[in-house]
Amino acid sequence: MKNRMIVLISLxxxxxxxxxxxxxxxxxxxxxxxxxxxxxxxxxxxQDLTMxxxxxxxxxxxxxxxxxxxxxxxxxxxxxxxxxxxxxxMETVVIFDGVYMWSxxxxxxxxxxxxxKFDPVNVWRMIDPNKxxxxxxxxxxxxxxxxxxxxxxxxxxxxxxxxxTGQQENTETEMYSIFWIDKxxxxxxxxxxxxxxxxxxxxxxxxxxxxxxxxxxxxxxxESLWVSHxxxxxxxMEMDDPGLSAEEKEQxxxxxxxxxxxxxxxxxxxxxxxxxxxxxxGTTLEAQEPLFKGMPGMGQGETDAEGFNSEQLQEFxxxxxxxxxxxxxxxxxxxKK
Length: 337
Description:
Layout: H1 2-25, H2 28-43, E1 48-57, E2 60-73, E3 76-87, E4 90-96, E5 100-104, E6 111-115, E7 132-140, E8 143-150, H3 159-164, E9 171-182, E10 188-201, E11 204-222, E12 225-240, H4 246-256, E13 261-271, H5 310-322, H6 327-336
Helix pairs in contact: 4-6
């Protein structure tokens, strides 16, 4: 009996030890490290990649081709990138040459060049473990996932410009993301991005909440790389502005949620085809005509039926793109008109 009690106590202690060890072994650091290691292994066999995508939803339609090529820049392995998009009839090109991001500003028509870190091979490093927390496990589409919350994934919405709005006077901004990572294949199955902005206007508190929910489905292996061939994105925005009437609020909400649900489909993926270096040369981009120049009835200084001229529209679009403080006020004035 004494020996049996000793064995029983030993088993209980051992089981408790295993349980405690398991709990502390699973944390944000270990999850991110394993996800990064797995992704690097997949990308190590990819010299270049070409992906063709299309997206439909709400009033948005887009065709997009992404090119990536492995290169060594400043003694570091990076992936140069080129994105060619057609969005509602407008064509855009963005190039990352390993150091600089090149693009054409649609408002001014001028070529833009800015230094930016873009590293698809180390995408998981964009999440700082010190600003993230482990939320446990949860199923997504019957698959077991690790669930983590991150406060500094700046790429999730508008990048640094969106964070800058939180530093403006009388404005408070909260942003965070929640990711569900497949325990088996270490790929993201779902991501939710939250942004809440609170601002005082004429002594009244104005609040805007936005949630973008993305689901990554239909993963297929292309050579060594797992690629999601179907992504569904839904957008939900809420606004509380005491300065607007019920009708104006309804109109503004309808405008902001017009995107509804969007679906992105990968039409094709090719790897290691030998993409030429010229594709990733940002100096080849040329200036274009400004977005609103030459539009019928919208010549420089002319006014449309709603009382807006081309300069006002350019200012409005610039504020939308840059996330400036005046965007909300301009949108509200637009909705009233």
